């Protein structure tokens, strides 16, 4: 028993997170995602909105530690409006809502005075675009009649990358991928994620979406890049703002943004590919 405990502690130390709580949280989130998508897709949109709003809360708190003056209330209202517009208006709703909401946020910031306007409006813009706009693509994937398959494909792509990059990083990782940003990430982990995500993408495209598996493998490679960049962006944010974690809401993961970071950049890529396939097939 002590040997198992020692092994678990060694894995946790090398991977940078607690393995068992992380698995439990991941399984719970997967159950919530698939149950809402299967039986009540609008509830899935609600789940996405809540997750994005929790991330907005985490990011605005982080900004305030660095003396950015950003309003959680205003950004939460703007993000909610953006999510609702996306669900009911599709990509046009997402684009129009973003274009209308940004000037409103700028005006509200301007009412507080010109001191720090550039800094504060930049933080507000980043929050709305990074979380609200990119998060809107999760809803866009879920809107069509085959939304469940789209979301399942996204989960497979992100899950394969996270899982196999983690496994290969723990077992074989020696060469840091971006040591100054995320010391735990390695090229070995990246390679493991790349191979198995390409396989997962090929299988998902062939047997779920019924598209060419070669396209699926290529999308898998693309999504490894976007997921890795998304994770590095979030790590860079924490280092730049001098905080260790965005939050502690999810045991083994940290905050909600720690769980969403990969999907935020991967969802737009997958949506664009699927739209191109539909238009030109």
Structural class: mainly alpha
Q: What is the spatial order of strands in the main beta sheet? A: 1-2
Overall pLDDT metric: 88
Largest sheet: 2 strands, antiparallel
Number of domains: 2
Indicate the overall shape: globular
CA radius of gyration: 19 Å
- The fraction of residues assigned to DSSP E strands is under 5%
Count of runs of 4 or more consecutive helical residues:
9
Helix content bin:
over 70%
What order do the SSEs take from the amino end to the carboxyl end, as H and E?
Answer: HHHHHHEEHHH
End-to-end Cα distance: 56 Å
- For this structure, the quaternary state is single chain
Uncertain ranges: none
**What's the total number of strands?**
2
Observed structural traits:
80% helix, mainly alpha, 9 helices, 281 residues, two-stranded antiparallel ribbon
Describe the secondary-structure layout:
Layout: H1 2-15, H2 19-39, H3 41-65, H4 72-110, H5 117-142, H6 147-172, E1 176-178, E2 182-186, H7 187-207, H8 213-240, H9 256-280
Antiparallel strand pairs: 1-2
Structural account:
With 281 residues, the protein is mainly α. The chain has two domains: 40-143, no CATH class; 146-281, no CATH class. It is 80% helix and 3% strand. It has a two-stranded antiparallel ribbon with strand order 1-2. Helix 2 crosses helix 3 (41-65), helix 2 packs antiparallel against helix 6 and helix 8 (213-240) packs antiparallel against helix 9.
Produce a short descriptive summary:
The protein contains nine helices and two strands, in the order H-H-H-H-H-H-E-E-H-H-H.
């Amino acid at each position: 028993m002590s040997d198992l405990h020692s092994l678990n502690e060694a894995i946790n130390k090398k991977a940078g997170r607690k393995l068992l709580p992380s698995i439990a949280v991941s399984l719970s989130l997967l159950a919530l995602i698939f149950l809402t998508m299967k039986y009540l897709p609008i509830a899935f949109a609600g789940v996405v909105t809540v997750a994005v709003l929790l991330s907005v809360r985490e990011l605005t708190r982080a900004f305030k530690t660095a003396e950015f003056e950003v309003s959680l209330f205003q950004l939460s209202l703007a993000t909610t409006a953006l999510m609702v517009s996306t669900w009911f208006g599709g990509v046009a709703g997402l684009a129009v809502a973003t274009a209308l909401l940004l000037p409103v946020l700028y005006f509200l910031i301007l009412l507080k005075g010109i001191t720090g306007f550039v800094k504060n409006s930049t933080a507000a813009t980043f929050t709305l675009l990074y979380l609200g706009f990119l998060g809107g693509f999760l809803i866009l994937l879920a809107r069509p009649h085959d939304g469940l398959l789209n979301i399942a494909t996204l989960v497979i792509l992100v899950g394969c990358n996270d899982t196999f990059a983690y496994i290969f990083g723990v077992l074989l990782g020696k060469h840091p991928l971006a040591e100054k940003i995320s010391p735990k990430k390695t090229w070995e982990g990246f390679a493991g994620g790349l191979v198995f995500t390409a396989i997962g993408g090929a299988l998902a495209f062939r047997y779920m979406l019924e598209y060419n598996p070669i396209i699926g493998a290529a999308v898998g490679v693309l999504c490894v890049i976007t997921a890795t960049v998304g994770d590095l962006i979030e790590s860079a944010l924490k280092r730049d703002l001098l905080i260790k974690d965005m939050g502690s809401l999810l045991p083994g993961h940290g905050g909600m943004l720690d769980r969403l970071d990969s999907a935020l950049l991967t969802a737009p890529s997958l949506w664009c590919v699927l739209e191109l396939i539909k238009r030109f097939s």
